[in-house]
Specification:
355 residues, alpha/beta, six-stranded parallel β-sheet
């Protein structure tokens, strides 16, 4: 039987986008009940995957030394799928190779010098590809803008929404709950997520608090963000939770007044469609992939001057509250249109084309 190898070791950390992508794609491929080829998962911890998926998949344990040529994996799979653009594990054999590109943010965040090792490695991955998938039209456009893309089949396949059904028990309540109505955002605390602009905006929204969730053990959290909170004396109105589990996330999404996402760069941006699943209004940066993913009924900031941002939020909440039933219904329908089972079927068809 034909063998598809998924270089999927980033599944180890599902608090980050790559880990979420790996897990939900794999689960979608499991739900697809594929019979015409066999998939091998590459992961550091294979036992939890075996417990969840049984013998539907084959499994190969990940070791970091496999990135070095002498120790590359020697089995000759029919197709090799590199699940993101940063992976250093590569096949030993020259076999059909599928690359999924999430973003090329490293051009802005690391170096725009094409001779930088990160850019060289990415160009090499493009060069060896027999097909390329992108998670958004923006990811495709920016890749073509900065790199030489080979003449191979290209596909845009949107991510699914991890929150298909709302599973929040009525009794569930996180440890940290604001006293006042609140706005919510989630993501890793990095300059790209731009959380400090929400704090600056909060000065002009005195009736609202702000909840920020995600990995906050970062330099940005401890410097720029902390300084902004302290300088504006907003310690009592900004709740920083750190990483949260799915039920806490669902609580904040269900009980927030609106979801905020002032990100500077996104290859896709899953949190806004998670919020829409709860019928919530979302306020997004009007850049990169976010207008593509947020759709026509989201609200957008064109820049980050605090009073302007607050005005957009006030007007947006007024619009939402005047048309709550209609807009909530549209948001939910939009969120449900991003489906991991359908996404996985599209990837399976790409595998078949390469076979």
């Amino acid at each position: 039987m034909k063998q598809i190898f998924l270089e999927s070791h980033n599944i180890k950390n599902q608090h980050f986008g790559f880990g979420q992508f790996n897990y939900h794609l794999i689960k979608g491929l499991y739900n697809a009940d594929i019979q015409d080829f066999k998939i091998t998962l590459h992961a550091k911890e294979v036992e939890p995957l075996k417990q969840e998926f049984g013998d539907y998949f084959n499994y190969k344990k990940y070791y970091s030394f496999r990135r070095y040529p002498l120790f590359q994996i020697r089995e000759k799979f029919t197709v090799w799928h590199s699940l993101n653009q940063n992976i250093k594990i590569e096949p030993y054999h020259d076999i059909p190779y599928l690359l999924t590109v999430h973003d090329v943010n490293f051009i802005d965040e690391v170096s725009n010098d094409l001779n930088h090792e990160v850019n060289i490695r990415f160009q090499e991955k493009l060069n060896r590809s027999h097909a390329i998938t992108y998670i958004s039209e923006y990811a495709k456009q920016s890749t073509h803008q900065h790199f030489k893309v080979p003449d191979v089949p290209e596909y845009v396949i949107y991510n699914g929404n991890p929150i298909r059904e709302i599973t929040l028990p009525k009794s569930h309540r996180p440890t940290q709950v604001p006293k006042n109505p609140f706005l919510f955002s989630i993501g890793e605390f990095t300059p790209r997520k731009n959380f400090h602009t929400l704090v600056e905006m909060l000065k002009y929204l005195p009736e609202l608090d702000l909840v920020l969730s995600g990995n906050n053990s970062t330099d940005y959290a401890n410097s720029k963000l902390a300084t902004t909170i302290n300088d504006l004396n907003l310690q009592n109105r900004v709740v920083i939770t750190g990483k949260i589990d799915d039920l806490d996330k669902q609580y904040y999404l269900q009980h927030c007044e609106a979801f905020m996402f002032p990100s500077l760069r996104e290859g896709f941006g899953i949190p806004p469609i998670e919020a829409m699943r709860f019928g919530k209004p979302v306020f997004l940066s009007n850049n990169t992939s976010l207008p593509e993913i947020g759709g026509k009924d989201a609200f957008y900031w064109n820049h980050y001057e605090p009073q302007y941002m607050a005005t957009i939020v006030k007007k947006g909440l007024e619009t939402y509250n005047e048309n709550k039933e209609e807009l909530a219904s549209k948001y939910i329908a939009h969120a449900k249109s991003f489906n991991w089972d359908e996404t996985a079927k599209q990837y399976a068809d790409v595998y078949r084309n390469l076979l």
